[in-house]
Design brief:
0% strand; rod-shaped; transmembrane helix; mainly alpha; 2 helices
């Protein structure tokens, strides 16, 4: 595997991780009650 291929793979993986993280955050807010989660996040 060349460095270019590895860079493409790394970028795609990083993007996928970001998308998954946002989906998890949004689902926690929706499922757990927005007010509770926001109160925990922002004190």
């Amino acid at each position: 595997m060349s460095d270019d291929e590895y860079a493409d793979y790394s970028a795609a993986r990083q993007k996928r991780v970001k998308v998954v993280a946002w989906v998890v955050i949004v689902s926690l807010i929706l499922v757990g009650g927005g007010a509770t989660v926001l109160a925990l996040l922002f004190g």
